[in-house]
Amino acid sequence: MGLILKKYIDDDCLFGLWEINEDYDTLMAQVKLDHHELKRLESFQNHPRKLEWLSVRALVNTLLNRDVKIVYNEMRKPFLHDDSYKISISHSKDYTSVLLSSTKQVGLDLEYMSHKIARLHEKFVNENEQITTDPALRNFHLYIHWCAKEALYKICDKQDINFKTNLTIKPFTPEKEGQIKGVVENQVLGHEEFDINYFELNNYVVAWCNKGQW
Fold it and tell me: What backbone phi and psi angles, to 5 degrees, belong to 44?
């Protein structure tokens, strides 16, 4: 299937979504890897992880219509080797997603909605947050909540952040798509508020946010 969604969001931000149903050789034919990248790819013991890793690079190449190299800093935060774009990457089950911006920092999360998240909510929902008690919407609400916090975590470079104590999502009513407010507060970053956008597609939730100039 490959690229299933490409769109510009919030002016400068380019979002792409890829469905991984290609085999290894098909994905390899869509990327150009140097020695270090090949070594990294070969280090993965899990075959689906290799497909996932390749799909990210195939997706970015397709979005930008050129070959690019994704590298990582000491915090494992990805960026493009030529610094032409900031990038955030997320993958879940059969989908890979990226968000690119040439002028803004970005944070992105993608999650397939299984039924496991309700058992974990106490680890990331704090006492100031509200989750619906409607059993038909609770799982969906929790996934939006989790994705929003993941997007915040990524945009803040994962600096001394606890999902429960340092991140707060303001009350919202879950819809198929929408915008919610998120707050980051810790000793490193101080107090920052973000608009977080989200949507649901094929039982996946996608959430993203961006921040200023760089």
Answer: -75, 125
Please name the residue ranges forming H helices in 73-167: 138-155
Place of tokens 């001394």: 160
**Residues contacting residue 65 through CB under 8 Å, at least 6 positions apart:** none
| pLDDT tens digits, one per residue of 161-209 | 899 999 999 999 999 999 999 999 987 778 999 999 999 999 999 999 9
Query: 4 by DSSP, 3-state: which?
Result: strand
Q: How far apart, in whole angstroms, are the C-alpha atoms of residue 14 and residue 146?
A: 22
**Level-2 CATH architecture, domain 2-103:** Alpha-Beta Complex (3.90)
- How far, in Å, CA of 96 to CA of 115, rounded? 20
CATH 3.90.470.20 location in the chain: 2-103
